[in-house]
Structures are given as structure tokens and as C-alpha cells.
Design brief:
Layout: H1 4-16, H2 19-25, H3 30-44, E1 49-50, E2 56-57, H4 59-85, E3 98-104, H5 106-123, E4 126-132, H6 139-143, E5 149-152, E6 161-175, H7 177-182, H8 192-196, E7 200-202, H9 209-218, E8 227-229, H10 233-241, E9 247-250, H11 251-254, E10 264-265, E11 272-281, H12 286-302
Helix pairs in contact: 1-2, 1-3, 1-4, 2-3, 5-12
Length: about 300
């Protein structure tokens, strides 16, 4: 049997980023945390943590962290059911809040994810701990045991998990009217040379949508062009609207834009389609099952 106190110490070290913060969070001394981790590693016969400037989990440590989080969710589900059975929570406030960690790309988070799960969270006293990352990299958070599920572009699930298709998030290349005009010839054709001489507005350094657009529609490989990096959704849109450059925007953002400035397509009718999948544990507690159901329903209403 795994020792619960030792498992809590391991989770605390990984969740709080070190032995000192973990000791403070658990109201223990630093030696006590170290002894618990050492005892767990001795009992299992393998290293669970890689110690250095930053502490990170080994594959075995990642598996144990995921196990701890699943146990916490199952315990919260059990306690919630017991409280409901005793009539608590009906007046509001008696039920305990339960936190679920998820990894989601910023575009999905604001365009369909949060609106789609808001009702569920309120009904079942659930809290979200959101890790925002590029859709090509969110899967790493699930692999590391940091989250219970992730929205990802990866089709293949890892062992013990499911990868369920959510749909396609379509992006279009847009810019302010003045930028669009600058990149077109007198005949109205988009000039690739002018486009590459104009700055692009990019969400962050993991964002490859601009390169995908140029590869799909102009067969350009590793193109070079000036870039602004603006890692916030509102600021990203603001940069485009104010003529800082051109960028890839998901179609849901281009529908209703009350009070927003105008954005035009660089190459009308062209798009970059990103297929998204919801990765989650095959055996998950009731709360996570409810979240999975709400996410799939929300995605199917918005995504292609």
C-alpha cells in the first residue's frame, strides 16, 4: 500500500515547485518533507524527483502525481455525494468546492471552452485551474500529471487515456484595412513579397499558425518575416486592429464584433484548419466525467 502522507508530500513538492514551499504548504519542516520523499522512493525502489535548480518529476513521479489527483477527485465526489444525501448544500455554501486542472489553448478557452462549461461549474461547485498553452503543447501537461485533461492537436492518446475528437477550429489570415491594402498590388492580388516584408502579430513563440498559412497557400518553408509577439487574446486583437501587422484569428472571433475595429482577410476564402481532441484519463471520477461531457457538447456547438 502506498503511504498517503508520503504521496501528499510528493504532490506538494511538484505542485508548489520545491521542497521549501511544499513544507510550508503542509506545515511541516523541510527535513520531514525530504524524509517522506526518500521513504517513498525507497519503498518503490526508484527515483521520483529530479533535483536541481528546479524540481521535476521522473516518469514514475508523474504517474504517481496523476494518481494522487485522481484520488483527490474521487474523494471530493464521495464527500459531495454524502453531503447531498444529508441535505447539505441545498441552501448553498455547505458543499465543498472541487478543483479540476485542465490545459487549453487560449483561442479555445475564450471562444467555446469557458462559455460551454460555465453552467456545469456553477451547478456542481467545481473550480477550474487552467494551464494555457499552445494547442500543440498542452498534451505535455497531461503527460506530466499536471492536469486531468487537455485540448490538443494530437490524435493519439497515451496509455490509460482517451483522445476524443472535438472538431475543427478554423483560422483566417486578417489585418486592418490599411495593412491589407499595403500587401496587395494595384490589381488586387496579394503580394507574398509585401506580406513577408510586413510584420506578423503572433501569440507566442510556440504559435506556428502563420507558418502553416504560408506553407499551405504559398508553399513557403521556414519563411522569414518580422514578428510582434503578443501573448494575450485581447492585446493580440488590439494589435491587429491598430495596424501592427497581420495574423491568424479563429473564425468564432470574426463573427460578432460589437465595438471592434474592422479586420479584413488577406487572402479571402483561404484558411488554416486545426483539428482538436480532448485527452482525458480512461478511468476518471464522476466530476471529471461531467466535465468531459460538457466540453464535448460545447465543442460540437462551435467547432466545424
Amino acid at each position: 500500500m502506498l503511504d498517503a502522507k508520503q504521496m501528499d508530500a510528493l504532490a506538494a513538492v511538484l505542485e508548489h515547485g520545491g521542497f521549501g514551499p511544499a513544507a510550508q504548504a503542509l506545515s511541516l519542516t523541510l527535513p520531514a518533507i525530504s524524509l517522506r520523499i526518500k521513504g517513498l522512493e525507497t519503498a518503490l525502489g526508484q527515483r521520483l524527483l529530479v533535483r536541481g535548480k528546479t524540481v521535476r518529476a521522473t516518469p514514475a513521479g508523474q504517474a504517481l502525481l496523476a494518481h494522487v489527483k485522481q484520488l483527490r477527485m474521487m474523494e471530493a465526489d464521495l464527500l459531495g455525494g454524502l453531503q447531498t444525501g444529508r441535505g447539505q448544500g441545498a441552501a448553498g455554501g455547505a458543499l465543498q468546492w472541487q478543483t479540476l486542472s485542465v490545459a487549453v489553448n487560449a483561442d479555445s478557452l475564450t471562444s467555446w471552452f469557458l462559455p460551454g462549461v460555465a453552467g456545469l461549474l456553477a451547478r456542481h461547485h467545481m473550480l477550474l485551474d487552467v494551464v494555457i498553452d499552445d494547442q500543440d503543447h498542452t498534451h505535455e501537461s497531461l503527460k506530466n500529471g499536471d492536469v486531468v485533461g487537455c485540448v490538443s492537436t494530437q490524435k493519439t492518446s497515451m496509455r490509460g487515456c482517451l483522445a476524443e475528437p472535438l472538431g475543427v477550429l478554423r483560422y483566417r489570415c486578417v489585418a486592418a484595412p490599411a495593412v491589407v491594402a499595403k500587401c496587395h498590388t494595384r490589381s488586387g492580388a496579394l503580394s507574398v513579397h509585401r506580406l513577408l516584408a510586413t510584420p506578423a502579430v503572433i501569440f507566442n513563440r510556440k504559435d506556428g499558425l502563420q507558418d502553416d498559412f504560408l506553407a499551405q497557400h504559398f508553399q513557403l518553408v521556414a519563411p522569414q518575416y518580422p514578428r510582434h509577439f503578443v501573448p494575450a487574446v485581447d492585446a493580440f486583437e488590439c494589435a491587429l486592429e491598430n495596424g501592427l501587422g497581420w495574423g491568424m484569428v479563429p473564425v468564432p472571433y470574426l463573427g460578432e464584433r460589437p465595438g471592434k475595429l474592422e479586420l479584413h482577410e488577406m487572402l479571402p476564402g483561404s484558411a488554416v484548419d486545426v483539428a482538436l481532441y480532448w485527452h482525458h484519463w480512461e478511468r476518471e471520477p464522476l466530476s471529471a466525467q461531467r466535465l468531459t461531457k460538457a466540453i464535448k457538447q460545447a465543442a460540437h456547438k462551435v467547432l466545424l
